[in-house]
Structures are given as C-alpha cells and as structure tokens.
Amino acid sequence: MGGHQSTPPPPPPPLFDEPWRTIKWGDNEAALQYVRGYKPGQLIRILLHGAVGAGKSSLINSVQSVLRGRIYRQALVDNTSGDSFTKEYATYKVKKDDGSFYPFVFNDIMGLSGQGGVLVEDIKLALKGHVKDGYNFNPVSPLSEDDHHYNKNPTPNDCVHVLVCVVPADTLSIMSNEVVQKFRNIREDASHLKIPQLAILTKTDLAFPEVKDLKDVYRSRYMKEKMQKFSADVGIPMNCIFPVRNYCEETHMNDDINSLILDAMKNILQCADDYFEFIQNQAD
Questions:
Q1: Phi, psi dihedral angles at 125 (to 5 degrees)
Q2: Entry pTM
Q3: 161, 180 contact by CB (below 8 A)
C-alpha cells in the first residue's frame, strides 16, 4: 500500500509580524537637525561606488532634496542607458540655506560591471586622493601618474573618509560573480586604509513588491534575506547596510522616503566620526 504524501508546509508570510530593525518614521526633525548641525574637524569626503545603474547620482540628488526640503536635481541621471551614465570623477557639495556649504561632499564615479565600467585600480587611487575632478574614466586603462588629472600630493581633504557601496536591490539576485569580487577587492583595500564602509540598497520598491507601505521595509522577510546574502558575499556587516528609496518619480517630498535617507546619512557621518577618532588614537 502506498502511503499518503505529506503536504509541504506553506511558505512563510512575506512580512514579519514585527520589524527586525526600527527607525522613527516620519519624525525626522531630530535626524535632520543632526545632519544640518554636523560639525566635524575637517571636510568629510564620501565616495559612492557601485554597479552600473545602481542610482548613485539619484542618491546624491535625494540627500540634497531632503536637506533642502524640495526636489533637487544637481547630479545628472539617466533612465535609458544600459551603460554607466556617469563617466567622470565629480565632487558634489551640498549648499545650505545661508549660502554656505555642509562640511561633507559626495564623489560620484563611473559604475562597475562584470567586464567593463570603472576599473578597480581607479577606485583605489580615488580612495587615496589621487584622482582630480573631471577625470574621464577609461574602462581599459587606469589613471597614470603622468596624467594631468593625477593628484601627486593629496591632502587629507582629498582622501576618502567613508566608502559607500550603492547596490540596486532589484538586481541583487543576479549580480555577477565578477562584480561581487570587485566589491570585495575594493573593500579589502579600503579596510587596509582603515576607511569605514557602508552599503545602501536602492530601488527597494522594485525589488520587494510586498512592501506596499514604505514603513514595512523592515518587516520584509525577503529584504532581510537579500541583505544577509549580500552581507555574506561582500563582507559588509548587516548593521552597515541601509535600504533607501531615492526620489525618482516624485515631484513632492515624502516623510517616509526622508526617514530612510536621513537614517543612512546619520550613520555615514557617524562612521566618519569613528574614522577620525581611530586616526587620532593611532597618532596619540
């Protein structure tokens, strides 16, 4: 007699009952004042790198939008090309209402890809402050010392203080081994330089359709699983990975989008503080 086949258990629900990470949704005043009032001892340079189409330029625009209180479009973005839209090394300052600038800048670079894009060697040069603004990245050969865009004597302000890996959540599952290996390679060099590293997951709305309300982003079971796998693949700890939603379609500000972006920015700046504290302790 054949036995009855057991019924497989139903899949777990896509959302946890309780969030696995908490932030203050919509109550952004404290985080906004933290970023607006941030006063480090020197300029903070934040280098964004990541896969082609990850949304690095959109992230810069989104941070500026949150701090200015309106949709801002300084860094040019492209919605059609399959190649990296950013071709050159660019520094983006963030202006305050009084005309002065925030004490941190973003550097945007050409995107990484499996067989092309920005060379890992060029990112390593940028970490050490050797790349000048306006350098057009060559996916075939790295920046040479005799190029006029090579900074032979970088100052502490030229060097990178926080490295942020920007990754599109909707393509995490199909990210090539070549790109993952490049991420690890860059991370190892940054670690050797004692530069703190974080990761920001963009396009969460495309990757996780179960997150119909942005407040459920930290209730998503699949979000947590994807973040854990990315953490294991690249080596960036879970508490250094932050999902966001960039301002791409919106024409008006959204408190929940702001909450995620401000949470990521606050952690980036705190990492910069930790870096300088470590450097100071080494010098003492």
A1: -65, -40
A2: 0.91
A3: no
The per-residue DSSP string of 49-96 comes to: EEBTTS-HHHHHHHHHHHHHTS----S---SS-SS-S--B-EEEEEE-
Write out pLDDT tens, residues 63-114: 999 999 999 876 555 444 444 455 789 999 999 989 999 999 999 999 888 7
Residue 111 in contact with residue 51, Cβ under 8 Å? Answer: yes
- Could you tell me if 242 and 260 are in contact, meaning their C-beta atoms sit under 8 angstroms apart? yes
Q: Are 108 and 135 in contact (CB under 8 A)?
A: no
Element (H, E) at 47: strand 44-50
Burial state string for 168-186 with b = 16 or more CB within 10 A and e = fewer than 16: bbbbbeebeeebeebbeeb
Tokens of 179: 């790109």
Handedness of CA 263, 248, 226, 273 (dihedral sign): negative
Look at the block and give the residue holding tokens 């302000």: 157
Ramachandran quadrant class, 203 (left: phi over 0; alpha: psi -120 to 50; beta: rest): left
User: How far is 23 from 218, CA to CA, in rounded Å?
Assistant: 9
